[in-house]
Recover the amino acids of this structure.
């Protein structure tokens, strides 16, 4: 994806604009608040002061030029719904909307959002899991009950290769990356010959109950 529309430039929206700009992506940044638009003007290739709930405005956006729209209207739940509906009708390729609650997320997906996220809830889940599990460094929920977790290598893994551990067969968990304690560098898709060292970090993909079994 190369071109993005970000509607709503609060903390979440402006952060998305900033990070996409760092990644050298083109971003159209839109908000009804002049100060918020001016704050990201140098980061966006297009910065517009406008009320995006007006269908006439979105119809003039030339949405065919964009790969994805990110909607972040803060506490204004109705605005997010209206904008999502309009953009879907206009044929936007992908719509990601920030939701204020689980019910709001359901409505957003019903009217056309490909993904409706609750950032605060997702962060709370990650923190809770990290605190509750002694060797769990980070935890990211995905769809369909699967998770990506970054765990400190259990003592029983140290000195063994991934082939010897055979985690995919024993636990139905895939190791997608590793981080060496000494080098501090990530190695993506480590092969079966990778030997786990003390204090290594392993990034694994699997169902929560299977990730939990690794730690037992």
């Amino acid at each position: 994806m190369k071109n993005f529309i970000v509607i709503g430039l609060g903390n979440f929206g402006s952060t998305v604009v900033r990070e996409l700009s760092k990644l050298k992506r083109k971003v159209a940044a839109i908000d009804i608040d002049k100060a918020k638009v001016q704050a990201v003007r140098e980061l966006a290739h297009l910065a517009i002061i406008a009320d995006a709930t007006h269908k006439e405005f979105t119809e003039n956006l030339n949405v065919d030029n964009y790969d994805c729209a990110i909607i972040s209207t803060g506490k204004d739940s109705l605005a997010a719904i209206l904008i999502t509906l309009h953009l879907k009708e206009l044929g936007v390729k992908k719509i990601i909307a920030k939701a204020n609650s689980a019910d709001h997320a359901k409505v957003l997906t019903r009217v056309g959002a490909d993904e409706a996220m609750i950032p605060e809830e997702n962060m709370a889940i990650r923190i809770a899991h990290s605190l509750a599990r002694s060797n769990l460094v980070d935890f990211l929920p995905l769809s369909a009950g699967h998770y990506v977790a970054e765990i400190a290598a259990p003592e029983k893994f140290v000195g063994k290769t991934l082939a010897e551990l055979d985690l995919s067969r024993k636990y139905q968990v895939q190791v997608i990356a590793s981080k060496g304690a000494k080098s501090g560098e990530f190695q993506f898709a480590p092969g079966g010959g990778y030997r786990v060292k003390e204090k290594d970090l392993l990034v694994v993909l699997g169902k929560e109950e299977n990730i939990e079994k690794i730690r037992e």
Summary: The chain has two domains: 3-117, 122-214. The radius of gyration is 21 Å. The mean pLDDT is 86.
